[in-house]
Amino acid sequence: MINDRRQAITKLLKVQIKSFPTQIDIKAVEEIRIRAGRPVQLVFSDTDMIIPECVLSFDECQRLVQTLCENSVYAYENELRQGYITYCGCRVGLVGKAVCENGELKRFSEISGMNIRIASEHKDAASKILHYCTDGNGNLISTLIVSPPGAGKTTLLRDITRRVSDGIGVLPKKVCVIDERMELCDCRHGIPEFEIGNRTDVLYGCPKAKGILLTIRTMSPDIIITDEIGTIGDCEAIRDALTSGVVVIASAHGNDFESLRYRAGIAEIIKAGLFDRYILIDRDEKGIFIKGIAGRTAAEGEKCII
User: Fold this and answer.
1) How many CB atoms lie under 10 A from the CB of residue 88?
2) Between helices 232-243 and 208-219, what is the axis angle to 10°?
């Protein structure tokens, strides 16, 4: 699937950007950053590349956004309001002139830059980490995975979902994925493009807080998996799930455990001891690695660096 995804992105760029070099192999590219009036930047795991001959005008940026929205910006209104589009399971972050009302972003009137993050699927990503999401007897425990942006949280959650759903290394469970940004599973007409297991149900395009409460009521999941929690609403919904007996595996941005203490909603969850385990990950040229593990009292500085 990842090759199909890269091919789709490559084809899109070569059609939409006449100056995009045909000889460039983007197999190792992780991000494609486009800025109106400036050269395209390709980002790799350990370096980047500027393509001087590939410069998009402002109008070309607008046409590219239209194509990413399948020529229906209205259909992507909710995503655009949050500053991104999802294309072939890849998140495309957007910047430009924002139109705000009452302090809230309503839309972009001019998009002058975008970051295409190419989604990855690695079936061994969770092989060394899943053990730490269990009680030692193969039973899943509620876990929060913490890392800086771009370190592989989403890739890791995909493989955890597949393994938990199919009982690879743990007891098989019914899983519900709340895929708000439609990049964890990349569902098309309801069918996930990524391999996420046979016992997995997906609610996509729905805000996490509402999705968590909805699936608890309607789908009786054993496990809920969701990506990038952070708002107070997210954390309140997760509190309800955890206190209802559902195991939650989620991710959050953070450079270390200490930083979680300053995230309003997450700090309250940590204080209440609702997550059983916190796993801090990062990434280098060799891939994802565990940087630290903490128990329920992560907010108080409990750490086991390994």
Assistant:
1) 21
2) 20
DSSP bridge pairs for 20: none
Residue 106's φ and ψ, nearest 5 degrees, are: -100, -40
What is the rounded distance in angstroms from the CA atom of residue 297 to the CA atom of residue 303?
9
> In terms of pTM, does the model score above 0.85?
no
Structure token digits, residue 129:
């980490």
Are 42 and 24 in contact, with CB atoms under 8 Å apart?
yes
Task: Report the C-alpha gap between 257 and 292 in whole angstroms.
Answer: 9
Q: How far apart are CA 295 and CA 277, in angstroms?
A: 5
> Max alpha carbon distance in the chain (Å)?
58
The edge-to-edge listing of strands for the beta sheet with 247-253 is 200-204, 175-179, 223-226, 247-253, 143-147, 277-284, 287-294
CB-side exposure of 142: number of CA atoms within 13 Å? 19
Q: Tokens for 150, please give them.
A: 């771009």
54-98 confidence digits (pLDDT tens) = 899 999 899 898 888 888 877 788 788 888 888 887 889 999 988
pLDDT at 180 > cutoff 50? yes
Query: What count of other Cβ atoms lies within 10 Å of the Cβ of residue 136?
Result: 8
